[in-house]
## 1
Amino acid sequence: MTAALGFMPRLATGPLIALMSDYTFRTVALGAALIGLMSGVVGCFSVLRREALLADGASHAALPGVVTAYLVTGSRDTAVLLAGAAVSSVLAAAATVLISRRTRIKFESALAVAMSVFFGLGLALISCAQHLPGASKAGLSRFIYGEASSMLMRDVLAAAVLVLVLTAFVCVFFRHFKLAAFDPEYAASAGLRSGAAGGALTAMTVAVTILGIQAVGAVLMSALLIAPAVAARQWTRSLAGMTALAAVFGAVSGVAGTAYSSLRDGVPTGPAIVVAASVIAGVSLLAAPGRGIAAKLVRRRRLRRRVLAATEINSDTRPQIAEAAEKAPPGVSSAERDIHTDGSAAPQEAGEDAGTSAPEDGGGEDNAGGA
Amino acid sequence: MPAELEIGLIAVMTAASCAVCGSLLLVRGMTMTADAISHTILLGIVLAYFMAGGLDSPLLFLGAAAVGLVTVALGELLVKSRLVSEDSAVGVVFPLLFALAVILITRYASSVHLDTDTVLLGELAFAPFERMTLFGMDIGAKGIYTSAGLLTLDLLFVCVLFKELKTVSFDRTAALVMGFSPALLHYLTMALVSLTAVGSFDAVGSVLVVAFMAAPAATAYLVAESFGRMLTAAVTAAAASAIIGIRAALALDVSFAGAMATAAGLVFLAALIAAPKRGLVGAYLRRRRAGKRSR
């Protein structure tokens, strides 16, 4: 393996071309790209509405539905199992919302209770299913870990249809979703039904989650929703841009993860996709212009230099001041001394970014007064 | 000791220590952190496994606890950079660490007894097979000692630092004024949560660790009026759900962990509906009475 790493160019071209002509790879990569794309789009809204962990909950909560669907119908058809998954995820989401609205338990804790209990119920049901004659948990456990390599052209087509429907939905109701994500109160006062839009967004999150479980598995699905959105957020200030970019990032992660796992044997596809998405997010957080961590450090250093220049404490006089401060009588308070010797006076980034991670929502003109 | 009794003891003690940690998390509104930690400890276990070459080493505990802390610290770093909101930070960090763990396992350790199933789902039924021997004498299942040790540690932590924990969880400013370090206490709590999650995963599996950290604490939160009572109620609810779950699992011949988690959910459901003040029925009645009075 180390030898192969030394010849990256050769490794990258030869097998990649072979891979491109491989039918299974193309099917799986296409499926993963579609799922990544959709997760990117929907994930933007979940991230902005602080519902990012809902995906994690929904994907765990799908398990009892999958098993029940199998126990009742006896079929292992993907569509049947996914229908079961949808029902139990929606139930868990509804329970979470009910608990967090009606009691003093917060959304997060309610979600943790609902998802873990549903998952436990699913496990109990799986062990029931194993007692039935002729049943094995093969095909069911792939819903826990995902098995992208088992995707068929039919699954890919189903994903494509869902992508088309959801994209059309997002485009048509974009303004409603935007308001539901940023300012539900304003939406209500403008006569838009933000409750309905919020509900639709939650439903879309659940739908995409369930679709994605096939590719990356229940445990990792939340990353596929969150990471592309977080990455896209760093590069743009408009919601439309963020959504488009997240779609691209999601699709790229899907293809890259699939390619990586096909080139190295023993690397499962789902985790590889998640690692790809996380790498994109990490690079974006570090290097995005203006907002990224690197840009922030540069800006802070410049500010520090400016402050130093402005207070006229430069490197020549500083040691003398420090010396004087050392000799200062104990009556001088240490806080006072710090200001003189430190010189930098801790430039604070007051007000910068104001701690929000939501993009400034593209100016008032395009969302005001919509109906 | 009969195997069923041993299983029951392990289950009750594991559930109780999870409930203590869960209560500490719940009052800070960070229950989903339990979910994150319970997944990422897999990475710690894998790394420690590679270093120690076996699954029995105490390194496993340390590695897992360390990765648990790393998860929390990375998440906080992201939040502090102000680029990512709190829940997204958790949602970015833990799947990455978990995915790395799964890749490492399938690529380098697939031939050995370390599969994701055992860690995620656990198998309480096998617990009595691992024996603890002292001077060549069989003194009970190993799990009993692990879970008893964890429970003692958790209870000691809470009893010794009760006042500090209470102040930090409910009134950070007061804690700062009084001179405790919220950060230190926070990381100590997270270390405790990680240790408990590691110690519990082979009894109940890491996903159900979350169930036992979330459900009994939430039940107690609905019933109890003070932090101390909440802790007692959480431990009671956890022990009750463990016992009900074990009974049900034996009767119906289903997985122990699954049945226990379901029982914890049912106990929570009962509290949700019928808790005297904060339950759905109680709240409804109160609203109606208030409505009548105002009319």
## 2
Amino acid sequence: MIWNEQAECGSVRDRRAMQLERLQWSVRHAYEHCAPYRAKMIAAGVSPDDVRTLKDIEKLPFTTKQDLRDNYPYGMFAVDMEKVVRIQGTSGTTGKLTLVGYTERDLDNWAECMARTSASAGLTPKSIVQISYGYGLFTGGLGMHGGAEKMGCTVIPISAGNTERQIMLMRDLGVEALACTPSYAMHLAEMIEKMGLDRSEFRLKYGVLGAEPCSEAFRREIERRLGICVTDIYGLCELTGPGVAYECAEQQGMHINEDLFYPEIIDPETGRVLPEGETGEIVFTSLQKEAFPVIRYRTRDLTSLTSEPCACGRTTRRMSKVLGRSDDMIIVRGVNVFPTQIETILMEMGEIAPVYMLVVDRKSNMDTLEVQIEVSQKLFGDTVKHIEELVNHIGERIRTRLGVSATVTLVEPGSLPRSEGKAKRVTDRRKI
Amino acid sequence: MFIKQLSVFLENKKGRLASLASVMARNGIDLYALSIADTTNFGILRALTNDTDKAARILREEGFMVNTTEVIAAEVDDRPGGLAKVLDVLDAGGIGVEYLYSFVRNPSDSALILFRVSDTEAAFKALTEAGVRLIGLDELSKK
């Protein structure tokens, strides 16, 4: 189902014209009402008047996470506090929160994005939706909530945690759609099996699973185990939260809500804008946000864009599945390593839902990478030889594929930390 | 006449073995024989018990990684040359030994050797033909 024919399926020409108009408004709004943006534009020698075409966006300076941190808590807000009706945020890895604000209209636009996302995932106003994303400052829970309610679904705002109760409600209420992180969906699937419940007792059909990187194989496994169709969502709280882009049933990349967000792909090293199809860092500019405008925000997410027509009928550009997030990307001896690469290797070896952790340390000025993997029935043979061969084999694959050597350690099932929100896959013990 | 053996993956962490033993004790699992292969990072505990399926189920519920494997239990004379005789038979049959461990239930009894071999069927045939007595789990429990 398509929620907003005009915004999602309208002509590209009309959309570009609208984007330019909205971009000009957004840049001017940021310049006039938000001192850090004004200061940066002045320093770069540009003004809102210089934005005459969409391509002129390239003249504008980037905004980074550091800019948001430097102006914590209210420095990046562009409206009076009396117009701000909500604060959301994200916990940074360095401990300081990134906080964002919303006006009533911002919330309405966000709900619109999530209603499109929900419709695209297969939901209808009749659907019963269980929202197991965390509620609170984290945008997952309330973001999905706003969209599903706007659509008219029956919403169960259960938030994350208390897995057994989640499963009981899912069964008793005939829940049709589950919204949570992929790792939590897998955890639910495992628990359902562990509790000895049969899938026929459930009515689950759809999963709207986002907020963390997830390999294609992992998605297929969740689909198989829960018997659902899983669609991915993209978003980050700096931009609004989930719903910046969303997959359709074709599962061929995520459609960007281009009437609200303008995407660019850049080379993360040089900042140069890359041609369509090339992989680089995706940068977004908000086109309608009032309380917290973002101009050329560096997401640190690596992906690519395509404007190829999609079989679903939407005409918006699509971004590919995110290869990794800089929060999880670790640099080991100068090599970029993404946890999803390890996941892919394990799944290629027939591992179904690998639980693993990358531990990075520095010993005698040398980075070390240890990959801890919970031993599974599939991996465990009862001879030392078998296990050692397996460990060597995984180590070898990591070395050839990633170009970095790692110590592989098998650990007992259940010994690595499980999260009810985003899965934690990296422990960095380096003190640099 | 194969015996179902329990194999448990144990990380080299303090207290893991004790916690395994107490799970077994709480559930009335009788251990007949036990061996541990240890490496730097992990160990594999192998055991014969009075109820392998139950033990495996309980340990899994407690979060242990458990497998069951078929092994052969051969009775050998508890005197010099007892083991050599059995190994010669396997060697002659081209059967490799992955690991073995032995136990004696009562001082007066003959010794029992538990083998995991490259080819369980072939080992069974070769040992039986050579007149080596192979013991089943039911017999162990009576001892």
